[in-house]
């Protein structure tokens, strides 16, 4: 059974955030969207657009979190925490946030994108040219890199697609070189 089918079955073919039945697709949660059932939700185009584009947020749309934040699905809880944190200045989201409980592992996952931190507290990853990197970006290696613990040498010019960011260290990103998942120092990559 495909991930989409499993998510449709889990959600009853409704957006797991607002219960809309229109324009549904898989949303893979950053910062490390592997694309499994556990790190994905079924969401409508409206929710996805507002999650990915903070300038498009309609605060009243997110009143739906009053119901969906109680989901047993960790990924839904994480998105609810992130959106409530983003909107907490409105008043009512802070009340919901005070009621929402996430275990330590899921809270760490929710905070991994820097949601809830002030701009000066966020960990910002930059490539060799100072360009800001985000989860899911593609980068190119600017020099040959020996991979510790293996005989692999990642060659200059190798593309690393769909990177994930280390939430605690702005110098580290992760990505696949061939079949191997490796940690790469941002000083040796440039954004594609």
UniProtKB/TrEMBL annotation:
Keywords: Hydrolase
InterPro entries named in the record: PhnaA_N_proteobac (IPR013991), YjdM_C (IPR013988)
Keyword Hydrolase among record annotations: yes
Domain of life: Bacteria
Domain PhnA protein N-terminal proteobacterial intervals: 6-52
Any one Gene Ontology molecular-function term assigned to this protein's record: hydrolase activity
Keyword Hydrolase listed: yes
PANTHER family according to UniProt: PROTEIN YJDM, PROTEIN YJDM-RELATED
Name listed for the protein in its UniProt record: Phosphonoacetate hydrolase
Organism per entry: Lutibacter flavus
């Amino acid at each position: 059974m495909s991930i989409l089918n499993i998510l449709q079955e889990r959600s009853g073919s409704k957006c797991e955030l607002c219960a809309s039945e229109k324009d549904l697709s898989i949303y893979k949660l950053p910062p490390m969207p592997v694309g499994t059932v556990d790190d994905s939700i079924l969401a409508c185009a409206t929710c996805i657009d507002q999650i990915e584009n903070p300038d498009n947020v309609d605060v009243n749309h997110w009143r739906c979190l009053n119901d969906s934040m109680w989901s047993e699905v960790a990924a839904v809880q994480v998105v609810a925490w992130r959106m409530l944190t983003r909107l907490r200045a409105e008043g009512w989201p802070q009340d919901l946030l005070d009621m929402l409980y996430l275990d330590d592992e899921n809270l760490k996952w929710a905070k991994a994108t820097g949601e809830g931190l002030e701009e000066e507290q966020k960990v910002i990853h930059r490539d060799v040219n100072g360009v800001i990197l985000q989860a899911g970006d593609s980068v190119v290696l600017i020099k040959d890199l020996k991979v510790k613990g293996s005989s692999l040498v990642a060659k200059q010019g190798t593309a690393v697609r769909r990177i994930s960011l280390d939430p605690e260290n702005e110098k580290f990103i992760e990505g696949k070189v061939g079949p191997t998942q490796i940690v790469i120092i941002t000083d040796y990559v440039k954004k594609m």
